[in-house]
Amino acid sequence: MSFQDYFPVWDQLDAGQQRRLLDSLSFQTAPRGTILHDGGMDSAGLFLVRTGQLRAYVLSDEGREVTIYRLFERDLCLFSASCIIRGIQFEVTIQAEKDTQLWRIPPAVYRSLMAESAAVANYTNELMASRFSEVIARMEQVIWKRMDKRVAAFLLQEAAIEGSSEPRITHEAIANHLGSHREVITRTLRDFQSAGMVRLSRGMVTLLDTEKLKALCT
């Protein structure tokens, strides 16, 4: 499938705008682990995911990572182009969580489309509001929720994303997602294992009792 099939408001652009957008695109393959945008970099452009999975995270003063949202097929990443979001006050790092194919849209081109097209402007504003809602919800979890609740919710989310009750993920990776220490995650997972909710093995957490995990999240 082509870019036209993935860009949500393609049919609402005129022929000149469509041509300008297509002429400016670059297509990129990012192997798992690739840093596509470092918080300290200049605007990297907007990423539209064709296949794969991206992770957006921030770093604490102590160097701990906290995932603020993830991007999947057809998702558009705005925070890699901070110049699109005026007044943004935090630095976001974008990393490929899986082998990913994406299109990169230059910020200047996208800004011009926003200025000319009400459809692009409205879509961008709605997406921006949705992303900020995700960020606020994640920060509320970090501030207010106990770690066992956060780990349980993360495991359920990871299983849903992978479509498997045996998500392949390390304790270190979970700690990076949740802004915690590996030792804290390991202790929590061992408590879950003792309660019969999970089974731990190298690089994998098998969910044995999702109902108990869901009850813990409430």
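(ticket continues) Second input and output from the same batch:
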Amino acid sequence: MLPLDTAATFFLAAILLALAPGPDNIFVLTQAALRGKIAGLAVTLGLCTGLIVHTTAVAVGVAAIFRTSAVAFTVLKSLGACYLLYLAWKAFRAAATSIHPAKTSEISRARLYRRGIIMNITNPKVSIFFLAFLPQFADPARGPLTVQIIQLGGIFIVATILVFGGIALLAGAIGEWLNRSARIQQIMNRVAGGIFVGLALKLLTTQR
């Protein structure tokens, strides 16, 4: 069991890391601004579901493969970059009326949730980060490391939900105001597409 001071220190570190600009929180921000608060929260839950996968991978040691295998790392990051380019293509082609929050259906929310999962699990840097970061707060003297890693992963997910959820609510509120103009909607779509392209290029050029 994690001591309270260790859990609190890790939680604070997780909050700060979630606040640092990166592909995931930028993705939440753009989707919430384009599609509304609920869409941003759906993406947030998808990303955090992906974190469960990464936590499990670290707990059983699978993430070490991506740290040591150049082929596995390259394949996974290429898949992630291709998916981001696909999202960019969709954003560039989207009509203004298709991104209005009122048009967001249950199906599209489920799709956004899946996008969050895919984007998170196809980023090998997350697994490597977890592999490097989580064990620093685990201690064999406190019991099984696997259990401690899972606990730390859970704390990280809670911190991420709080930060990304706040980003989604704020960006969604701003987006609802901006989406009153079809012209602004189109500009926001182009900006989102450009961000996706930039994130894809960043992922492709990422080194282990």
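Agent notes: The CA atoms of residues 9 and 108 lie 37 Å apart. Residues 145-178 form the longest helix (34 residues). Closing as not reproducible unless the customer responds.
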